[in-house]
């Protein structure tokens, strides 16, 4: 059973999410909260596998709530999925830095929502190509010009190829198909690159690839 907490200030949104999740027996909503502060308290109390977190809420926003949840050692196995709209671009970028495991559009279909929850619960980082494209445009609009990251010298030629594919938003399966390797080997490469670059997740890898000029 995968347990889920819903943190959103709109009752109708929470009701809709609850209904979409309820159609699968292995997903269970165990808690709800209407603002970030209550969300953190609720998550500390219930310790769900996944939190569906709105960004814009009263009392405490979703970015700060995500940061507090990810900083709590007892919640190391709790993963936060951010609920977003395209109006939240820069907020989503801040959520990356706060430690969100992935990003989901509020109008996502039920199958997409349930799949995202399962993948997040398993520890996978999620970033749709559409949201990745918006984030990289934010990075591109910053005044700093792309420049090589000295940490990239630690990577082998194959690891650089994998990093470039991550920068394009490819999944492990897509990387495997493009580079003619197995999905398990792809996962191993991504884990190795995360360690060498000291990156938190695939999103940070994508930003590194973009800022270094590997992806344009």
From TrEMBL:
Protein name, as recorded: Response regulator transcription factor
Modified residues (4-aspartylphosphate): 54
Keywords: DNA-binding, Phosphoprotein, Transcription, Transcription regulation
Keyword 4Fe-4S: no
SMART domains: HTH_LUXR, REC
GO-annotated molecular function: DNA binding
Domain HTH luxR-type: 148-213
Coiled coil feature spans: none
Domain Response regulatory: residue ranges: 3-121
Keyword hit for RNA-binding: no
PANTHER family, sorted: TRANSCRIPTIONAL REGULATORY PROTEIN NARL-RELATED, TWO-COMPONENT RESPONSE REGULATOR
Source organism per UniProt: Arthrobacter caoxuetaonis
One GO-annotated biological process of the protein: phosphorelay signal transduction system
UniProt-listed Pfam families: GerE (PF00196), Response_reg (PF00072)
């Amino acid at each position: 059973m995968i347990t889920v907490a819903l943190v959103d200030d709109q009752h109708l949104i929470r009701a809709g999410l609850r209904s979409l999740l309820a159609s699968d027996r292995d997903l269970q909503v165990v808690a709800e909260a209407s603002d970030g502060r209550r969300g953190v308290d609720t998550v500390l109390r219930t310790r769900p596998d996944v939190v569906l977190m709105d960004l814009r809420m009263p009392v405490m926003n979703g970015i700060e709530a995500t940061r507090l949840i990810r900083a709590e050692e007892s919640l190391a196995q709790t993963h936060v999925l951010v609920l977003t709209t395209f109006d939240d671009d820069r907020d989503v970028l801040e959520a990356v830095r706060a430690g969100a495991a992935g990003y989901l559009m509020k109008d996502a279909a039920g199958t997409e929502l349930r799949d995202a929850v399962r993948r997040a619960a398993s520890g996978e980082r999620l970033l749709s190509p559409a949201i990745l494209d918006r984030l990289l445009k934010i990075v591109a609009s910053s005044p700093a010009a792309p420049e090589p990251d000295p940490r990239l010298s630690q990577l082998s030629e194959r690891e650089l190829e994998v990093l470039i594919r991550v920068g394009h938003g490819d999944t492990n399966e897509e990387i495997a198909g493009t580079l003619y390797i197995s999905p398990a080997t792809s996962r191993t490469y991504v884990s190795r690159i995360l360690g060498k670059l000291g990156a938190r997740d695939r999103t940070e890898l994508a930003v590194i690839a973009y800022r270094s000029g590997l992806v344009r």
